[in-house]
Protein backbone atom coordinates (compact mmCIF):
# COMPACT_ATOMS: atom_id res chain seq x y z
CA UNK A 1 0.00 0.00 0.00
CA UNK A 2 1.40 3.38 -0.99
CA UNK A 3 1.92 6.12 1.54
CA UNK A 4 -0.75 8.27 -0.12
CA UNK A 5 -3.31 5.49 0.32
CA UNK A 6 -2.35 5.14 3.97
CA UNK A 7 -2.57 8.90 4.48
CA UNK A 8 -6.02 8.98 2.85
CA UNK A 9 -7.27 6.20 5.14
CA UNK A 10 -5.82 7.91 8.21
CA UNK A 11 -7.27 11.23 7.10
CA UNK A 12 -10.77 9.69 6.97
CA UNK A 13 -10.22 8.20 10.44
CA UNK A 14 -9.06 11.57 11.82
CA UNK A 15 -12.08 13.31 10.31
CA UNK A 16 -14.48 10.79 11.85
CA UNK A 17 -12.83 11.09 15.27
CA UNK A 18 -12.65 14.90 14.91
CA UNK A 19 -8.90 14.87 15.62
CA UNK A 20 -8.06 18.24 14.11
CA UNK A 21 -4.34 18.20 14.91
CA UNK A 22 -3.73 14.80 13.30
CA UNK A 23 -5.87 15.79 10.35
CA UNK A 24 -3.85 18.97 9.83
CA UNK A 25 -0.51 17.10 9.87
CA UNK A 26 -1.79 14.38 7.53
CA UNK A 27 -3.03 17.02 5.11
CA UNK A 28 0.40 18.72 5.15
CA UNK A 29 2.16 15.41 4.50
CA UNK A 30 -0.25 14.52 1.73
CA UNK A 31 0.19 17.94 0.09
CA UNK A 32 3.98 17.61 0.23
CA UNK A 33 3.87 14.19 -1.41
CA UNK A 34 1.43 15.34 -4.08
CA UNK A 35 3.55 18.41 -4.84
CA UNK A 36 6.61 16.20 -5.19
CA UNK A 37 4.67 13.92 -7.56
CA UNK A 38 3.67 16.90 -9.68
CA UNK A 39 7.26 18.14 -9.80
CA UNK A 40 8.58 14.67 -10.64
CA UNK A 41 5.87 14.02 -13.21
CA UNK A 42 5.32 10.43 -12.06
CA UNK A 43 4.11 8.34 -9.13
CA UNK A 44 6.66 8.44 -6.33
CA UNK A 45 8.53 5.29 -5.39
CA UNK A 46 8.70 4.23 -1.76
CA UNK A 47 12.18 5.69 -1.55
CA UNK A 48 11.02 9.04 -2.93
CA UNK A 49 8.10 9.10 -0.49
CA UNK A 50 10.55 8.43 2.32
CA UNK A 51 12.65 11.39 1.16
CA UNK A 52 9.59 13.66 1.41
CA UNK A 53 8.74 12.32 4.87
CA UNK A 54 12.33 12.79 6.03
CA UNK A 55 12.27 16.38 4.81
CA UNK A 56 9.02 17.04 6.69
CA UNK A 57 10.46 15.50 9.85
CA UNK A 58 13.65 17.57 9.55
CA UNK A 59 11.64 20.77 9.16
CA UNK A 60 9.70 20.00 12.31
CA UNK A 61 12.80 19.10 14.31
CA UNK A 62 14.51 22.31 13.17
CA UNK A 63 11.40 24.30 14.14
CA UNK A 64 11.33 22.60 17.53
CA UNK A 65 14.96 23.54 18.18
CA UNK A 66 14.30 27.17 17.21
CA UNK A 67 11.15 27.41 19.35
CA UNK A 68 12.94 25.91 22.36
CA UNK A 69 15.82 28.34 21.90
CA UNK A 70 13.36 31.22 21.77
CA UNK A 71 11.46 29.97 24.82
CA UNK A 72 8.19 29.53 22.92
CA UNK A 73 6.64 26.76 25.02
CA UNK A 74 3.25 27.27 23.36
CA UNK A 75 4.72 26.30 19.98
CA UNK A 76 7.09 23.56 21.18
CA UNK A 77 4.20 21.39 22.38
CA UNK A 78 2.42 21.76 19.03
CA UNK A 79 5.55 20.81 17.07
CA UNK A 80 6.31 17.87 19.41
CA UNK A 81 2.83 16.50 18.70
CA UNK A 82 3.35 16.98 14.96
CA UNK A 83 6.65 15.08 15.18
CA UNK A 84 4.88 12.17 16.93
CA UNK A 85 2.32 12.03 14.12
CA UNK A 86 4.95 12.15 11.35
CA UNK A 87 6.98 9.44 13.15
CA UNK A 88 4.08 7.01 12.71
CA UNK A 89 4.72 7.07 8.95
CA UNK A 90 8.50 6.78 9.19
CA UNK A 91 10.34 3.45 9.23
CA UNK A 92 11.70 2.23 12.55
CA UNK A 93 14.59 4.39 13.68
CA UNK A 94 18.07 2.94 14.10
CA UNK A 95 19.66 2.88 17.54
CA UNK A 96 22.86 4.81 18.21
CA UNK A 97 24.83 1.54 18.21
CA UNK A 98 23.44 0.59 14.78
CA UNK A 99 24.33 4.03 13.40
CA UNK A 100 27.86 3.76 14.85
CA UNK A 101 28.26 0.36 13.20
CA UNK A 102 27.17 1.70 9.80
CA UNK A 103 29.48 4.73 10.17
CA UNK A 104 32.44 2.52 11.11
CA UNK A 105 31.80 0.33 8.04
CA UNK A 106 31.64 3.45 5.85
CA UNK A 107 34.89 4.78 7.30
CA UNK A 108 36.60 1.48 6.55
CA UNK A 109 35.09 1.26 3.06
CA UNK A 110 36.10 4.81 2.13
CA UNK A 111 39.48 4.62 3.84
CA UNK A 112 38.81 7.91 5.60
CA UNK A 113 41.38 8.80 8.24
CA UNK A 114 40.81 12.47 9.03
CA UNK A 115 37.96 14.93 9.57
CA UNK A 116 38.79 16.38 6.12
CA UNK A 117 37.14 13.29 4.61
CA UNK A 118 33.86 13.94 6.43
CA UNK A 119 31.92 14.48 3.19
CA UNK A 120 33.10 11.21 1.69
CA UNK A 121 31.94 9.28 4.77
CA UNK A 122 28.59 11.08 4.98
CA UNK A 123 28.02 10.33 1.28
CA UNK A 124 28.49 6.64 1.99
CA UNK A 125 26.42 6.59 5.20
CA UNK A 126 23.33 8.63 4.34
CA UNK A 127 21.88 6.32 1.66
CA UNK A 128 22.08 3.43 4.17
CA UNK A 129 20.29 5.30 6.97
CA UNK A 130 17.86 7.31 4.85
CA UNK A 131 14.70 7.89 6.84
CA UNK A 132 15.90 5.63 9.62
CA UNK A 133 18.13 8.09 11.46
CA UNK A 134 18.28 11.80 12.17
CA UNK A 135 20.92 13.43 9.97
CA UNK A 136 22.19 15.58 12.84
CA UNK A 137 22.82 12.47 14.94
CA UNK A 138 24.64 10.77 12.05
CA UNK A 139 26.66 13.94 11.48
CA UNK A 140 27.76 14.05 15.14
CA UNK A 141 28.75 10.36 15.15
CA UNK A 142 30.77 10.71 11.93
CA UNK A 143 32.62 13.73 13.33
CA UNK A 144 33.30 11.92 16.60
CA UNK A 145 34.62 8.77 14.93
CA UNK A 146 36.80 10.72 12.49
CA UNK A 147 38.43 12.57 15.40
CA UNK A 148 39.75 9.34 16.94
The CATH architecture designation of the largest domain is Orthogonal Bundle
> CATH topology of the largest domain, which one?
Hypothetical Protein Yqey, Chain: A, domain1
The main sheet comes to: none
| Mean pLDDT across all amino acids | 88
- The structural domain count equals 2
Distance between the termini: 44 Å
Shape: globular
**What is the CATH C level class of the largest domain, in words?**
Mainly Alpha
CATH superfamily of the largest domain: Uncharacterised protein YqeY/AIM41, N-terminal domain
Derived from helix and strand composition plus strand pairing, the structural class reads mainly alpha
> What is Rg?
18 Å
The ordered string of helix (H) and strand (E) elements is HHHHHHH
Total beta-strand segments: 0
Q: Segments where pLDDT lies below 50 for 5+ residues? A: none
Number of DSSP helical runs: 7
Q: Tell me what portion of residues adopts beta-strand conformation.
A: under 5%
Please give the share of residues in helix: over 70%
Descriptive report:
- InterPro entries: Asn/Gln_tRNA_amidoTrase-B-like, GatB_Yqey_C_2, YqeY/Aim41, YqeY/Aim41_N.
- GO terms for molecular function: carbon-nitrogen ligase activity, with glutamine as amido-N-donor.
- It comes from Enterococcus florum.
- With 148 residues, this protein is mainly α.
- It folds into two domains: 3-87, Uncharacterised protein YqeY/AIM41, N-terminal domain (Hypothetical Protein Yqey, Chain: A, domain1, Orthogonal Bundle), CATH 1.10.1510.10; 96-147, Arc Repressor Mutant, subunit A (Orthogonal Bundle), CATH 1.10.10.410.
- It is 78% helix and 0% strand.
- The chain is globular, with a radius of gyration of 18 Å.
Amino acid sequence: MSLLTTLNEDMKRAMKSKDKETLQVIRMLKASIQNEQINAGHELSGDEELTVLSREMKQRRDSLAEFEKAGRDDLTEKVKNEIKIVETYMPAQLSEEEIRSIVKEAIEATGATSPKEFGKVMGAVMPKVKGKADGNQVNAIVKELLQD
